[in-house]
Every structure is written in structure tokens, then in C-alpha cells.
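stage 2 :: seqdesign
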């Protein structure tokens, strides 16, 4: 195994020679080319076993590469859901065929993936989802709607949750599938947010056919699969935003303070110091949780801590950026790309408290599953799904669900 110093030197030299000099995140073709080159050079899935497309090196090797990569604006965003969430769940629950077919394509950026969980009536309460998957001799037929699906507008494949049994309580009777986003009957409609970008989507499934082997894990056990996948999501979201190259990182906000002549302001200096300290602590928490997971330790609900901390830091940083930028936070000269990016990041910051589960949901999870506090009372946990009358299910007749119209 290559020692850490040699690996770090090789990583530093490779990044210097190949890392993009400009932000190419939104140039999908260029981002794919870089991702493939990064994988072929041995700098993706560094700790994963070789049989799953990884390099089978230590967490220390991975940390060394990430530390070197922090100084660049690498186009990781298009591949984050696939590598951080979909590939891990396929490694954990997928069949040998699913792993063989998909893992290396995900890691190289050949296929971009999305996560299809939330629905108009099932956001924080995902177990209320109504998208239906009905089995026949040829496979599965999916009908329904998803919303807030990041990257769906350019995704090749996705991990889908659909209801396969309405005669059991809502947390049962759900199944996880792999879905081809280019299949007949899949309709993706981008949604524009207040930052001006279209990063998430509505997705409609109109009698979309899936093969029998599209199931991930066990039929009707998709809720447990979803819980496992959300653990990966919360670590990924909680630890990803605090890179040095991030627009709202403490190091970049120090540069912003210098640019606007506010480095001598005592309160702003204090906030910058506190943000830097908390940012470092959050990073170490993420590293600890990730290394424990890679060693086979069940981190349980502690991933929600990383996610909550990351969201709070992002919102604090955005507020500080406004105070540092002044009027430049809302208006800037044409061609001032730096000011435009800061304003976009400020507008996008509130989403950190929503994406991947709201801060309120994360606090509930931490309270109940980490601190052992009493669960909030529920009235629908033991009732068959077809009997529920809530959300977009309200007012639909039992006969409609029997006919497969509950989606």
C-alpha cells in the first residue's frame, strides 16, 4: 500500500495538473470528463473495496486527498447523490448484478443518479408516499409523482420508493427500486428556486415499467432501506458544505471581510473566529462518523447531528456574508462574478435547513434516537395505509386505491 506522504504528493501533483481552473459544475460534459479522469487516477472511492470499484486504501489516504482537494472548485455536485447515497445503498442491499452493473458507472460519472423519495403529500412524513408499484408477470408498473428531486433533470438513473402494499401500516408495504430516468413514461419538470437556478424537479411516472430485478433489498421492506439510505444522505449533506473553496466557508468570508474593509470590526471578527472554530469541529465530527461507518460501526441516528450542524453553519455563514457584503449582497455590477456567486449562495442557504429533512425533523430524530427522549405520539402507525385519510390521500375512496388510483 502506498504510504500517506507519497499518496499526498501524488494527489497534489495530479490536482495541480488536472483540476479545473474555473468552476465547471454546470458544464455537465466537462464535469463528467473530470470525474472519469479523477476515478481513473485512483482518487474516487479511495476506501472502498476493489470489488466495488474502490482503491481499498485507508481513511487516512482519503483524508489526505480531500485536504488537497479543498483548495479547488472540483465539480462534485452532479455526482454527490450517486456516490454519497445511491452507491452505498446498492453496496449494502443491492444484488450482485446491481452492484456489477452500476457501481463503477456511478463512481466514474458515466451515470448520474437521483433520489426519488419526497412527494407533494409526503415530505417530512415520507412514509405517507402514494406512488404505486404494481407487479405483473413482466415486472412492475409505477404510477405517481415525486417532487423536490435534485438533479433529476440530468439524471440517468434513480433510487425510487413506491408503495407496493396498501393493506399494511404506512411504514410497511413500501419497496425500493432502481429506475431508468430515460424510460418511457418518466416526465421530469424542473422547478426554479429563488436563487434563479433549477436544481430540483417534479417527476411524474405514467405506467413506467420496471423489470422484476429492479427491486433493491426486499419487497415491502423499502422503509428500512430508506432509513439506511438517509443515514448516508445526512452524513453527506452535513459534511460536504464546509470546504475551503465553498463560497460561504470561513476562509472565504475572511477574504470578503478584507475586500469590504471590515476586518477591524470587533463583532464581525468574533463571528468569523467562532464560525471557523465551529466549521472545524463539524468537519471532525463528519470525519469521525464516516470512519466509524466504514469500519462497520452502526452510527444510527447520529448522522442527523452532522446534518443539523451543517445546516446551522450554512445559515449562520449566509447571515454573516450579508453583514460583510452590505448592499453588494443584493446588487452588483455586471461582470462581478464573485458578488453574484455570494448573492446566489445567500439565497440558497435557507434550503440547507430543508433538504434531506428539516432541522425540526433532525432535532426530533436526535432527541428520540440519540438522547432517548420519549417519542412524539402518533395515531396512524398501526393503521392499514388504505384506511388513512391524510395529505393528498384525503378524500380518496377505498375503491380508488383498490383500483390502483391512489397515486
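stage 2 :: out
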Amino acid at each position: 500500500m502506498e504510504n500517506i506522504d507519497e499518496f499526498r504528493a501524488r494527489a497534489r501533483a495530479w490536482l495541480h495538473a488536472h483540476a479545473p481552473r474555473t468552476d465547471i459544475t454546470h458544464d455537465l460534459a466537462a464535469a463528467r470528463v473530470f470525474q472519469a479522469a479523477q476515478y481513473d487516477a485512483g482518487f474516487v472511492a479511495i476506501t472502498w473495496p476493489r470489488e466495488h470499484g474502490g482503491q481499498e486504501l485507508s481513511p487516512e489516504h482519503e483524508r489526505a486527498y480531500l485536504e488537497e482537494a479543498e483548495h479547488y472548485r472540483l465539480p462534485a455536485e452532479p455526482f454527490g447523490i450517486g456516490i454519497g447515497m445511491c452507491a452505498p445503498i446498492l453496496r449494502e442491499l443491492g444484488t450482485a448484478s446491481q452492484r456489477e452493473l452500476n457501481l463503477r458507472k456511478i463512481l466514474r460519472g458515466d451515470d448520474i443518479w437521483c433520489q426519488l423519495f419526497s412527494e407533494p403529500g409526503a415530505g417530512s412524513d415520507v412514509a405517507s408516499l402514494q406512488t404505486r408499484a404494481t407487479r405483473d408477470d413482466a415486472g412492475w408498473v409505477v404510477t405517481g409523482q415525486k417532487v423536490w428531486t435534485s438533479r433529476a433533470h440530468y439524471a440517468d438513473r434513480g433510487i425510487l420508493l413506491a408503495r407496493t402494499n396498501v393493506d399494511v401500516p404506512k411504514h410497511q408495504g413500501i419497496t425500493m427500486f432502481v429506475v431508468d430516468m430515460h424510460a418511457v413514461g418518466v416526465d421530469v419538470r424542473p422547478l426554479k428556486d429563488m436563487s434563479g437556478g433549477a436544481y430540483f424537479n417534479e417527476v411524474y411516472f405514467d405506467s413506467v415499467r420496471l423489470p422484476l430485478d429492479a427491486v433493491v433489498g426486499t419487497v415491502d421492506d423499502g422503509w428500512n432501506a430508506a432509513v439506511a439510505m438517509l443515514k448516508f444522505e445526512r452524513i453527506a449533506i452535513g459534511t460536504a458544505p464546509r470546504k475551503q473553496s465553498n463560497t460561504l466557508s470561513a476562509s472565504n468570508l475572511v477574504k470578503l471581510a478584507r475586500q469590504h474593509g471590515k476586518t477591524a470590526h470587533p463583532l464581525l471578527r468574533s463571528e468569523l473566529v467562532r464560525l471557523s472554530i465551529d466549521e472545524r469541529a463539524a468537519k471532525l465530527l463528519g470525519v469521525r462518523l464516516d470512519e466509524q461507518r466504514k469500519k462497520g460501526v452502526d452510527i444510527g441516528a447520529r448522522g442527523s447531528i452532522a446534518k443539523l450542524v451543517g445546516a446551522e453553519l450554512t445559515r449562520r455563514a449566509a447571515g454573516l456574508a450579508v453583514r460583510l457584503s452590505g448592499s453588494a449582497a443584493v446588487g452588483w455590477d455586471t461582470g462581478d462574478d464573485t458578488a453574484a456567486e455570494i448573492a446566489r449562495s445567500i439565497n440558497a442557504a435557507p434550503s440547507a435547513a430543508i433538504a434531506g429533512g428539516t432541522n425540526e425533523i433532525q432535532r426530533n430524530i436526535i432527541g428520540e434516537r440519540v438522547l432517548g427522549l420519549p417519542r412524539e405520539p402518533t395515531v396512524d402507525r398501526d393503521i392499514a395505509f388504505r384506511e388513512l385519510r391524510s395529505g393528498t390521500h384525503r378524500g380518496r375512496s377505498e375503491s380508488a386505491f383498490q383500483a390502483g388510483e391512489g397515486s
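stage 3 :: structure notes
- Confidence is low (pLDDT under 50) at residues 392-407.
- The first strand starts at residue 113 and ends at 116.
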